[in-house]
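S., here's the first fold you wanted:
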Amino acid sequence: MTVNLSLQIIPVNVADAYPIIDAAIHVVQASGLKYEVQPFATLLEGPLEEVMAIAMQAKEAAMQAGGEELVINLQLHLKKNQDVHFEDKTRKFNTL
């Protein structure tokens, strides 16, 4: 089943957090999964095992990029017998 995962990685006690966050986002971009980079989090869409694996890889990339201490927020939306897609939640707000 397709799920949605929101991933927020917050480096703690660093002068410049953006290179650390960017390293995590690059992992998401290279994953081949559907994603959206947003101001406070990156959204992923795909099978549960894959989105969770990408979240763990993103965490590792952030640590390798200098993130000695991270706060990671995950939100997961799944349904028992139904796929979850970004558009199902946002379509009604997109009038273009």
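And the second, which I think is the more interesting of the pair:
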Amino acid sequence: MKLVLMLIAVCILTPALSGCPIVQSPAAGGIYTELKYGNFATTSTASAKEGKACVQSILGLVATGDASIAAAKAAGGITEVSYVDHYAKSILGIVGDWCTIVRGR
């Protein structure tokens, strides 16, 4: 039983302590990461609406969701994209969120 518990602990702590982020971001903290960064802009200046689409990762082993630009556009009712930003959050490499944020009209 001790061996099983030790293996479970190793499986949980290895991603957290490896220094490898479970969410994509330009900077990563080993314990905590939360940041927003830009990725794409068009010549359109209209940005009255905002849509957000996210995925979540657990232990870097399971990831679910739809963080596509199409999903973010649909969430915000956007037809013309002005710019696309991203949001990343990771806590100890255990739980991570990665979102695409689209602004436009």
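Why I say that: The chain has a mean pLDDT of 83. Residues 38 and 85 are 4 Å apart (CA to CA).

Talk tomorrow,
H.
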